């Protein structure tokens, strides 16, 4: 029970409001040492309750300090994750005076500058936008006592490691660090040695295992027939809400448009969309306005949808760990879910690597009967050539 962790009544009340009955394993392991002021290095699967694992001790520590200064910084790799963390921390801080603000790109600077000037207790930021504020002199990190890095391996994948190091140099040396990462690759391990002082190690994320409760279904399908297969599968109303992952932004746009033509409500979320568009797309998807959210890997972490029934790997990810993170969007909060993957012949090598990482072969399912592909319209130059040929015949006669 959360009561056994030594949390203050205001935080326990918020936990009850959220209907959290008992701590998750990572919360059991990370909260006590964090409350004791220790640095924590934790690796745990996506959807395992990491925000509560660092958020609850962070809030409790801030309750004992004077207000009016920004004392805690949480770094996250994507706008979506930063927004999600801000929302979750806000819910946990509901019965406290602690204020939280998000700082990320795609939106104006004005509100963010005001948050720094007010001395908002916790700033949740993406590295790039925070560095912009530091460069412009609109942010100061001189009073930071608590630093959290969430999804640190994703920050490494996105090339943020040098930026993170520059940010850390702006923070007072005497601070507590809570470091969370789904995996600990060599570069991350090196960073932890630079940042952490005698950390408590919490290892609950074997890199080869997706979250329990996920049924994995694999279909072998030609690249040009993937959309047909998805449309056919969606005739089953059991797939009521799904994220479909594509490899590129252009493919996400094409897939969303193709689904809309089939009267399947779909929306897109990827790096070329503004923050307002991404936020609206996610909110509309959660509300049920859209049945399918088509996304690139910008959304494979940082989207918290508890009742997401299905994840569709429309394209096989090139990195095996990304497969685990993608399908981790379903079966969150100890629920069950389904992951469906389309494997084209030119993707077999990438899927074989996923199977090697998982340590097992995933059986292929029998494809449903697909309608014959629609005949392609004649190309314009072919029509033009036929017209020329016909005109020539008439001239000869």
**Could you tell me the radius of gyration in angstroms?**
24 Å
Alpha carbon gap, first and last residue: 94 Å
Top CATH class of the largest domain: Alpha Beta
Helix content: 40-55%
Order of strands across the widest beta sheet? 3-4-2-5-6-1-7
* Count of structural domains: 2
CATH topology of the largest domain: Rossmann fold
Main sheet record: 7 strands, parallel
At CATH level 2, the architecture of the largest domain is 3-Layer(aba) Sandwich
Q: Output the number of helix runs.
A: 15
Supply the helix-strand structural class. Answer: alpha/beta
CATH-level-4 superfamily name of the largest domain:
P-loop containing nucleotide triphosphate hydrolases
- Share in β-strands: 15-25%
Q: What overall form do the CA principal axes indicate?
A: globular
Give the integer mean of the pLDDT values: 86
Output the helix-strand order: HHEHEHEHEHEHHEHEEHEHEHEEHEHH
* Low-confidence runs of at least 5 consecutive residues: 382-397
Number of strands: 13
Description:
With 397 residues, the protein is an alpha/beta fold. It folds into 2 domains: 2-204, P-loop containing nucleotide triphosphate hydrolases (Rossmann fold, 3-Layer(aba) Sandwich), CATH 3.40.50; 214-358, Rossmann fold, CATH 3.40.50. It is built from 15 helices and 13 strands. It has helices at 9-17, 25-35, 50-63, 79-92, 110-118, 127-136, 152-157, 161-168, 186-195, 226-233, 249-261, 275-287, 320-327, 348-358, 380-396; strands at 40-44, 72-75, 100-103, 122-125, 146-149, 176-181, 200-204, 214-220, 242-245, 266-269, 292-295, 310-313, 337-343. The strands form 2 sheets. Strands 3-4-2-5-6-1-7 form a 7-stranded parallel beta sheet, with helices on both faces. Strand 10, helix 12 and strand 11 (292-295) form a beta-alpha-beta unit. Helix 3 packs across helix 4 (79-92) and helix 6 crosses helix 8. The chain is globular.
